[in-house]
Design brief:
Length: 374
């Protein structure tokens, strides 16, 4: 198949899942064309079946905000025509589903029919999508997609509650390529921590919804009692305030801000506990990746996280903002080697139920169904 993927290029779950799906399908022999405004962080540019198309926006001074949706729709049209794509898969409703619909209408006018799947990932519905300024466009895009999927039962319910949905929404969960995640050797770990130190990790795009200040606060409470290191992977608007809080709390020398890195697997592979105290998570892909690396997760009990993390088995789920309980959970793992081993083993076992092999096949079957129905 010749598959077009439209996604955000960032560390957010939608961009990561979209590009990992593209990488995997390319290895299976399918030809992948990724369309975005910059190279996605996880995309493998060295595989012969992967092609990247950058959406170019001319900075014309008339526009206070550049019309990205128009540029994206035009890029989709040109890519479909030039590369003879069979199907489009757009990730994140805004602006991708809306732009994809515009593109299909332009193509239809030229007697070219192409189906497009919209995968909903979370904040495109629960934060951005329900904003009155965007809600009609999001609702329209969902109902005019050829097919709609959501990454969790929680997100499906939220979407049906928030919008007048006429399309069937199928839940196809996020996935993880298990081959890329494992425990790393001691020689990698020694660059970050001493033998008697526990390594905590957090990976995100550092937006307010991720509550990175809670990550720092939980770590501070643990560090006051047990020698620990915190690795913060990613970047975003809340990085500066997180750095300031770590200085104000006197733990600056124990917190390592790694910024954007392509090697998230190595960071997770040397970690002992993963922190994800978000105010909303429709799935929690970073939690799943941590679990694939045998790392227990301490997170907020929100959205689809309970579909990934089993409380008191491979991690802990606490109320939003309850940094005290989260710190106590972490200490309970640090202080019991047997508990840490059991939680780590269970984390990996749960991750194996989200295997990329099985879930990518569901997408391939959906692509083929839509192609056959054209």
């Amino acid at each position: 198949m010749r598959i077009g993927i439209v996604c955000h290029p960032t560390y957010g779950g939608s961009g990561v899942m979209a590009t990992e799906l593209g990488n995997f399908l390319a290895k299976k022999g399918h030809v992948i064309h990724v369309i975005s405004h910059s190279m996605p962080v996880r995309l493998n540019p060295f595989h012969g079946n992967i092609n990247f198309h950058e959406v170019y926006i001319d900075p014309y001074p008339l526009f206070h905000h550049q019309p990205y949706e128009v540029a994206l729709a035009s890029a989709i049209v040109e890519t479909v025509k030039r590369e003879k794509l069979d199907v489009l898969h757009v990730h994140y409703a805004i602006p991708h589903a809306y732009a994809a619909y515009m593109a299909t209408q332009i193509l239809k006018d030229q007697n070219i029919i192409i189906p497009f799947i919209t995968t909903l990932h979370g904040t495109d519905i629960t934060l951005v999508g329900k904003n009155p300024a965007y809600k009609p466009a999001v609702s329209f895009s969902i109902n005019h997609s050829s097919y709609v999927t959501a990454v969790s039962e929680s997100l499906k319910k939220d979407t049906e509650d928030l919008f007048d949905v006429k399309n069937l929404i199928e839940v196809i969960p996020n996935f993880v390529n298990l081959k890329g995640y494992d425990r790393k050797t001691k020689d990698k770990r020694q660059y970050f921590a001493k033998d008697n130190e526990t390594i905590f990790c957090h990976v995100s795009n550092f937006r307010p919804v991720k509550r990175v200040l809670d990550v720092i606060k939980v770590f501070k409470k643990v560090q006051d009692q047990r020698n620990s290191i915190l690795i913060m992977v990613g970047d975003g608007p809340d990085r500066n305030i997180a750095e300031k809080l770590s200085r104000d709390l006197g733990i600056w020398d124990k917190v390592i801000f790694r910024g954007k890195t392509y090697d998230v697997q190595s960071m997770l592979g040397i970690s002992d506990i993963f922190l994800l105290p978000s105010s909303t998570e429709s799935f929690g892909l970073s939690a799943l990746e941590a679990m694939a690396s045998h790392v227990p997760v301490i997170a907020s009990n929100v959205g689809g996280l309970s579909e990934v993390v089993d409380h008191n088995k491979n991690g802990f789920l606490e109320n939003i903002g309850d940094v005290e309980s989260m710190a106590e959970d972490a200490l309970s793992l640090i202080d019991s080697k047997e508990k840490m081993i059991n939680f780590s083993k269970s984390a990996r076992e749960k991750a194996e139920s989200f295997s990329m092999n099985e879930i990518s096949q569901r997408y391939l079957e959906l692509y083929q169904k839509l192609i056959d129905e054209k």
